[in-house]
Design brief:
By secondary structure, the chain is α/β, with parallel strands linked by helices. The protein has one domain: Rossmann fold. It contains twelve helices and ten strands. The strands form two sheets. It has a six-stranded mixed β-sheet with strand order 6-7-8-3-9-10, sandwiched between helices. The chain has a four-stranded antiparallel β-sheet with strand order 2-1-4-5, with helices on one face. α4 runs parallel beside α7. It is globular. The termini are far apart. About 40% of the residues are buried. The structure holds adenosine-5'-triphosphate. The site of adenosine-5'-triphosphate has 12 residues, from β1, β2 and α1.
Length: about 280
């Protein structure tokens, strides 16, 4: 098996407090997992606020340096990528999607401006027709087209539409991995499932792996292949999503699950489906 992404004993500490009363906060403790290059999957990181999910995502994207441990993407150490060209190449293959789609697009520019910039930056395109074609192709992957989006501003679109466009923007460089940090928490509840279903579709049709970060167990249960549950920086449980979420072992994940799901996976599925419908 060759690894798409490999985290080995990753730790992140922060110094907090003032000069006289500083202490160390262990935000991420000894996290290890591997995503297989030949088996695209939806790998979900579940946890309550402050459990270390975002810090883990930021390290995977190269935006935060681990205190110790190693992060490798397609065989290369993420922390060792220094050159501009190396960073650009890495970023084209590992793309982020953020929580707030309204913040992802500056309201003063039309949406297509951001999509075209991404095509120029990551694909090195200069020809207008080629930029249009790459943008249109990515928009089609999320059920939209350039004709529908061209010339429009973010305030003219719903949160759900904007999040779809944010996914399209991430697809323009043809990534192998998408890291989506709470991508549906600010999207209208009625549209959440359509966004997470889209992730499943990208996994199956385009072979993109998704790291889905959420505190929402129902969407996690519904779309994840594997899941890790983080609590105060530790991975307290990991494995096949429906097993972990349907039959949690650790006290924290038990409490978390019982709040939403009964232990019986089939009953849990029914409750989730009823919630989703
Ligand atoms: N730059 C920083 N400096 C100091 N502490 C930080 C920093 N970034 C994160 N932390 C702390 O690290 C811990 C983990 O934060 P993190 O954002 O990774 O959690 P999270 O699970 O993503 O939570 P949320 O969903 O609220 O973002 C928290 O206690 C947070 O306050």
């Amino acid at each position: 098996m060759s690894a798409l992404l490999e985290l080995r004993n990753v730790n992140k500490d922060y110094r907090i407090g003032g000069f006289f009363d500083s202490s160390t906060l262990h935000a991420v403790k000894n996290v290890s997992f591997t995503l297989d290059d030949s088996k695209p999957e939806i790998f979900t990181i579940v946890g309550e606020s402050g459990s270390g999910k975002t810090t883990t995502a930021r390290m995977i994207l190269g935006n935060e340096t681990p205190t110790s441990g190693s992060l490798r993407f397609m065989g290369q150490s993420i922390t060792a990528i220094r050159s501009r060209a190396g960073k650009l190449k890495f970023m084209s293959k590992a793309q982020p999607i953020f929580q707030n789609p309204f913040e992802a697009f500056n309201p003063l520019s039309t949406i297509d401006y951001f999509l075209f910039s991404t095509a120029r930056r990551f694909l090195g395109l200069r020809d207008k027709a080629a930029i249009d074609a790459a943008t249109d192709k990515a928009l089609h992957h999320v059920g939209l087209s350039l004709a529908e989006v061209r010339g429009r501003y973010s305030h003219e679109l719903s949160g759900g539409q904007l999040q779809r466009i944010a996914v399209a923007r991430a697809l323009i460089p043809e990534p192998k991995l998408i890291v989506a940090d709470e991508p549906v928490s600010m999207v209208d509840a009625s549209l959440r499932m359509s966004i997470v279903n889209l992730f499943r579709d990208l996994r199956d049709r385009l072979g993109v792996s998704i790291i889905y970060i959420t505190h929402d167990l129902s969407t996690a249960y519904y779309i994840s292949d594997r899941v890790i549950i983080m609590y105060k920086g530790d991975v307290v449980e990991s494995g096949v999503a429906q097993e972990v979420l349907g039959n949690p072992q650790h006290a924290y994940s038990k409490a978390l699950s019982q709040a939403v799901l009964p232990p019986d996976p089939e009953a849990a599925r029914k409750i989730i489906m009823a919630k989703i419908a």
